[in-house]
Design a protein that fits this description.
By secondary structure, the protein is an all-alpha fold. It has a single domain, classed as Orthogonal Bundle (Glycolipid transfer protein, GLTP), CATH 1.10.3520. The chain is built from five helices and no strands.
Amino acid sequence: ARAEAMWRDAGAAEAAEAAAQASVGEVCTTVGECANAAYASTLKPYHGFLASSAFSVALLAVPSAKGFVGAMLGGDDNTARLQKDLSDFASKWRQVLESVKAKLEEKDCWFEDVV
């Protein structure tokens, strides 16, 4: 249960980081770059060679930025609003993750082993 909770939290942290990266266009220009930047700052420190290689392969399936933004906009052309929404999501999600991590640490269920 400890490992499951830690990886769920780390995966959620990656999602929040990817949203934050996507919300500031100058950090990355493609969805793949955003995902890779988020992975590097969240999960990669805990992954060994095999897991990192698997993530690299998974990046090949990342949609194009145009397709991703189009799907997120849902027919609306307001990219500024989308960036604000992604930034707001990332900020609020980080607060949730910090609460979860604090609770896991309090219950001695948080660890940072490399797999």
